[in-house]
Task: structure prediction
Amino acid sequence: MSTDNEMRPVGYGMAALILIGILVGVAALMGLLKLANVGPIFPAYLFLFYWTGVRNMDKNDFLPSLFGALCGLGMAYLTATLPQVMDPTTGLAIAVGVSLFSVYLLILQKAAIIVNLGTMLFLTVGNIPALAGADFAEMALSVLIGAAFAGVLVFCGTWIAKRWATKTTVVATV
Result:
C-alpha cells in the first residue's frame, strides 16, 4: 500500500544523483550558516527534514511549517526561561499552560498557520535537556536561514523546471 508520504523507488543511478544533490545542498547550507556565524546548525536541518520529508515540500505547507517551527522554539524558550526569571513554579506553570493550550488548538485544528505538527516537533526538540542554556535566538535564526535556503532552492527550482518543461514541449511539438 502506497501513500503520498512514502518515498517512491528509484534506480541506482538516480539514487546516486539525488544523494550527490543532497550532499551539495547540505554542504552549501552548512557554509551559509557558518558565513552567517550561526552556532546551532541542527534547527535548519530539522526544518529542512520536516518541510521536505514530512510535508513533502508542499508549497502550501511552507509558511505553516516555518511559523510552526518558530512558535515551537518560542514555547521551548518560555519553558527554559520563565522558571528562571520568576518564581520557578509559577514560571513552569505558565509555560506548561501555554504548551497545553497549543495542544488544545492542535486538536481543534485551529490556528494551524502557527500551531501544527512542526510546532510540536520544535517544542519537543527545544526542550531536550542537553540544550539547556541554548541560545534560542540563534536557533530561530538557523531555522530562518534554513527555510530561506530551502524556499529558494525548491521554489526557484520548480519555476525553472516548469519553464524548461514548457520550452521542451514547445520544441518537441514544432
Observations:
- Residues 17 and 23 are 10 Å apart (CA to CA).
- Residues 12-173 form one domain.
- The chain has one domain: 12-173.
- The mean pLDDT is 89.
